Amino acid sequence: MTLKGFIQSAELVEDTSGPDRVMMIVRVQGVGPGQPRKILIPFEILIVQDDLEAETMGGRAFRAECSGVENALGMVTAIEVGPSRVLRNPDA
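-> structure tokens emitted (92 positions)
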């Protein structure tokens, strides 16, 4: 399934499969009806794509391929994130 929209927020969390692994949970908006509002980016993608930083992802557009949904989270297999913020900064 392909998801497109905007990233509201992102946070790194510890992966339950190992103490030296992390994953990123991303809250998104603008996806279609019935599509997940949270996506999970696994460790394997985080170590390959150096532009995926939780602190800078908010407000940017994204396009992701998800293999399915588990526990209301879209499981990301590939993701592209826009180069700059397109939504207004909530702190402004």
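The chain has one domain: 2-59+66-81.
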